[in-house]
Amino acid sequence: MKIRFIINPISGIGKQKGIEDVIKRYLVFSYDIVYTKKCGDATILSKKAIKDKKDIVIAVGGDGTVSECSKALIGSNVAIGVIPCGSGNGFAYHIGMKRDIKKAILQLNISTLKTIDSCTANDERFVNVSGIGFDSHIANLFANNKKRGLFNYLKLIIKELSYQPEYYKIEYNNTKKEVKAYLIAFANTSQYGNDFEISPFAKLDDGLIDFVIVKVFSKWKIPFFLLKVAKGKVHLSKNVEIIKSKEMSIESKNRLVHLDGEPKELKSPIIVKVKPRTLKIFSPNGKK
User: Fold this and answer.
1) Residue pLDDT tens, the chain, 288 long
2) Are 87 and 46 in contact (CB under 8 A)?
3) Measuring CA to CA, which of 15, 176, 217, 273 is 20 to 30 A from 81?
4) How far apart are alpha carbons 276 and 139 in whole angstroms?
């Protein structure tokens, strides 16, 4: 088994410092290490890993690093694994990776290969949780914020609670309707990160996307809503509708989305699709 570690040295709050020594001490597989220098490098380095006939790419970083690596690896025979070192680490935590670096490296020694779904929004690839509305607004602000970490992410959310809901025309499974919502999340996994679960029962290999519509509710209820997200009980909220579908068309004046946390502007309508069993992952026996 030949592994290439792709390390993002500026991801998150610096958990990856000194990781080379930990890998050398505890990993049983043959490996090499490369580092990213700028945005987009992880995709380029993952493509090179395919050419170099590596078996596995391990993304050492957050969901952005995982996303960049996955974009290159979808449809290939090279699997992706992850050591969580980002601000949120939603993908890593969903598949059962430990937060501690040493424990996560030890998990790689007993991990197995599985095949999961990937997704697209107007042909732009994503693998974790994406969306439109309030979460894309926050993702855009966070991307331009020099301060990382959960605390600063939560500060942004609190600061932007005056965000106004928007109207969305959606079409799925031969159904058309208009909804007024704070956001529509496209969930391939269960969480944004830090165990904040927007769709607790989302699965990576069921051939479906969980479209989570957070409808309008009184502002005073926001702290209680966020508590439900933190406890993995958002599906119990009367203001949340979760639609499982292979595809959804979304029309909106708002063109700002986030794909695995990366803000992008897409043309309306936004066509979100699942691509079943298109990405190999190297993971412990966590949920999929």
Assistant:
1) 899 999 998 776 667 778 999 999 999 999 999 999 999 999 999 999 999 999 999 999 999 999 999 999 999 999 999 999 988 899 999 999 999 999 999 999 999 999 999 999 999 999 999 999 999 998 888 877 767 666 777 787 888 888 899 999 999 999 999 999 999 999 999 999 888 999 999 999 999 999 999 999 988 888 888 899 989 999 999 999 999 999 999 999 999 999 998 999 999 999 999 999 999 999 996 555
2) no
3) 273
4) 26
What domains are defined for the chain? 2-119+279-283 (3.40.50.10330), 124-275 (2.60.200.40)
